């Protein structure tokens, strides 16, 4: 009997040792991969394509220098639709919602890409950093001739870019001739006092080029607690993630690298890039929106306050996955704490160690404590000091 008990204890000890070893190995692997990802951008020649692939640097110019230009760089299920809605309702704005969606898909699939100017190009996936920067540059300078047709005709323009509804309506009625509609898009872009691009598909490395090309550009780096982000993402995805460990590792590895590039850009352009935490926007929406508007030199008015209240305290449905109008944005931001699988909490805490250390997210132990809404999930760090 005693022998059996010792055998059980021995097996338990081995299991625990293996679990801890896997966790330590994951952390060191994450550090090694993250360092590999960032070594290319610091001090690199990010100025455009070389040789025959040179596309943009020869024609980078200051188009409409007095027009404010904004890039919201973020991740799936991180509150960017809410932020985008708040920004695009500023009077006389031009808002491009996910303008890299289709070009990103086609580059990844190795497809030839057709542009509005009639050209067709094959773009190598190894150049994706510059491809993303070029396309965002084209959108922010109203250069639609050099934008791929699929993204210009995106169905999401009518759904999420509310101030482009006239153009979206034209697309629906003129399916065979985009030439009839493009004038509407051009006019609105050229006449706008602020142009905004929101994307979850671009890495911060591409922003190094954009900051050089567009001296008036301002960037908001929007982050969300990875536990809430991944809980929401898994609920919204059409297919299950086959390996959650790999999913969590890739997610936090990519965000961690972006935060390092953000730090680098802040040393070069301290007044042009700011960090925004989704939880702060959701819990103090009016105060945070005022900070955002001030950073972007946009007028914050009583109508803006009314708009923010409509989006965050409207009595809208909390069951709508993609809606921005909520009964209470504060409670919605932390709803995941009552539903997330406790095993995932421990796994994410382990795989996202370096992101937690950078941004200030707090690991929870035991995992059951995640249900205690009074328990804080983030502490201020040098990275979030001065966040919007």
Strand content: 5-15%
Class based on secondary structure composition and strand pairing: alpha/beta
Spatial order of the strands forming the largest sheet: 2-5-1-6-7
Largest sheet: 5 strands, parallel
First and last CA, distance: 63 Å
Helix content: 40-55%
The pLDDT mean sits at 84
Write a structural description.
A hairpin with a 5-residue loop joins strand 3 (112-114) and strand 4. The strands form 2 sheets. A 5-stranded parallel β-sheet has the order 2-5-1-6-7, sandwiched between helices. The chain is α/β, with parallel strands linked by helices. It is globular. It is 50% helix and 9% strand. The protein starts with a helix and ends in a 29-residue tail after the last helix. The chain has helices at residues 2-38, 80-88, 101-109, 128-140, 149-152, 156-160, 165-173, 179-191, 204-213, 226-236, 244-268, 278-283, 285-295, 302-312, 329-333, 342-351, 353-359; strands spanning 68-73, 93-97, 112-114, 120-122, 194-199, 217-223, 273-277.
């Amino acid at each position: 009997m005693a022998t059996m008990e010792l055998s059980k204890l021995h097996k338990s000890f081995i299991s625990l040792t293996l679990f801890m070893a896997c966790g330590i190995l994951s952390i060191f692997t994450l550090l090694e991969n993250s360092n590999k990802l960032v070594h290319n951008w610091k001090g690199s020649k990010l100025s455009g394509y070389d040789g025959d692939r040179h596309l943009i640097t020869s024609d980078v110019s200051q188009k409409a220098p007095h027009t404010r230009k904004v890039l919201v760089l973020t991740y799936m299920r991180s509150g960017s639709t809410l932020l985008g809605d708040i920004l695009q309702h500023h009077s006389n704005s031009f808002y491009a919602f996910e303008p890299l969606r289709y070009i990103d898909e086609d580059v990844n699939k190795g497809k030839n890409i057709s542009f509005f100017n009639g050209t067709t190009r094959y773009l190598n996936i190894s150049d994706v950093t510059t491809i993303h920067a070029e396309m965002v540059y084209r959108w922010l300078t109203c250069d639609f001739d050099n934008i791929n047709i699929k993204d210009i005709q995106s169905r999401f323009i009518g759904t999420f870019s509310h101030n482009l509804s006239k153009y979206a309506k034209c697309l629906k009625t003129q399916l065979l001739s985009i030439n009839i509609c493009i004038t509407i898009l051009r006019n609105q872009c050229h006449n706008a006092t602020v142009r905004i691009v929101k994307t979850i598909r671009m890495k911060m490395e591409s922003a190094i080029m954009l900051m050089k090309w567009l001296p008036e550009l301002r960037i908001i780096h929007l982050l969300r607690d990875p536990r809430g982000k991944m809980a929401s993402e898994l609920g919204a995805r059409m297919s299950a993630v086959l390996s959650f460990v790999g999913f969590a590792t890739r997610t936090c590895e990519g965000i961690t690298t972006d935060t390092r590039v953000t730090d680098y850009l802040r040393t070069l352009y301290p007044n042009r890039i700011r960090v925004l935490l989704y939880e702060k926007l959701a819990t103090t929406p009016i105060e945070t929106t005022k900070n955002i508007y001030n950073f972007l030199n946009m007028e914050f008015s009583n109508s803006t306050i009314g708009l923010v209240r409509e989006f965050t305290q409207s009595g809208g449905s909390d069951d709508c996955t993609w809606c921005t109008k909520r009964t209470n944005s504060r409670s919605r931001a932390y709803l995941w704490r009552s539903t997330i699988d406790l095993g995932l909490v421990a796994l994410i805490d382990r795989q996202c160690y370096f992101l937690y250390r950078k941004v200030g997210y707090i690991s929870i132990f035991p995992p059951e404590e995640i249900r205690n809404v009074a328990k804080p999930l983030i502490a201020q760090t040098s990275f979030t000091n001065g966040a919007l």
